[in-house]
Amino acid sequence: MAPTTQALTAERILEATEEVLRRHGPAKATVVDVARALGVSHGTVYRHFRTKAALREAVTKRWLDRTSERLSRFTAEDRDPEARLRDWLAGLFDAKRRKAGDDPDMFAAYMVLVTEAGELVGEHLDELTGQLTEIIGAGIATGVFTAADPAVAARAVFQAASCFHDPSYAREWQKPGADAEFRALVELLVRGLRN
């Protein structure tokens, strides 16, 4: 990122940090590198993020939030809960697969950062299962699904689909047949919720 005369914002710092992580990887990326990319001193970066760990956590949160925000629209839609559930699961799989496939260097960097941010990851997973709980709860309320407890069902669905969203399975997502396996799993999960 070339230095500019734009006001330095947290968002600009996070964008520059992503570029630095992409270029150097998380092991070698420093706050000085981020500052250099922005054309400012590292002290200026520290005015926005008090520590390197805080900066790394903010970048990780931003990355995780992109997925949550993309999926949140399915909880707000006023349409068939079964279709919303199918679309939510497909959206999650697609988001994770694109992150891994479109920018493998950045994906690898984030996998390192995510291991440093356990609490943040836990909050992210809670948010995702919360979205699922809303969708499944709507299905129970309309009689589409028969599960007794939407939160328990949501956790079970999320866990069952883990091989299509857990980054440790990323290599499997590009293999021939992955889409067919995903569709078969979703069909099984939906049938299970209906009965």
- What's the total number of strands? 0
Q: Tell me the span between the first and last alpha carbons.
A: 54 Å
Q: How would you classify the helix and strand content by structural class? A: mainly alpha
* Mean pLDDT over the residues: 91
- Largest beta sheet, briefly? none
Shape: elongated
Total number of distinct structural domains: 2
By CATH, the architecture of the largest domain is named Orthogonal Bundle
Beta content: under 5%
Q: What proportion of the residues is helical, as a percent range? A: over 70%
Q: Outline the low-pLDDT stretches.
A: none
Number of helices: 9
Order of helices and strands: HHHHHHHHH
CATH fold label of the largest domain: Tetracycline Repressor, domain 2
The CATH homologous superfamily of the largest domain corresponds to Tetracycline Repressor, domain 2
* Rg (C-alpha, Å): 19 Å
Highest CATH level, the class of the largest domain: Mainly Alpha
Task: Describe what this molecule looks like in 3D.
There is one protein chain. The chain is mainly alpha-helical. It has 2 domains: 10-50, Homeodomain-like (Arc Repressor Mutant, subunit A, Orthogonal Bundle), CATH 1.10.10.60; 57-194, Tetracycline Repressor, domain 2 (Orthogonal Bundle). 73% of the residues lie in helices and 0% in strands. It contains 9 helices and no strands. The protein has helices at 10-24, 31-38, 42-48, 52-76, 81-102, 104-116, 118-141, 150-160, 178-194. α1 (10-24) packs across α2 (31-38), α5 packs across α6 (104-116) and α5 (81-102) runs antiparallel to α7 (118-141). The longest helix has 25 residues, at 52-76. The radius of gyration is 19 Å and the shape is elongated. The chain starts with 9 loop residues before the first helix and ends with a helix. The relative contact order is 0.11. The model has no long low-confidence stretch (mean pLDDT 91).
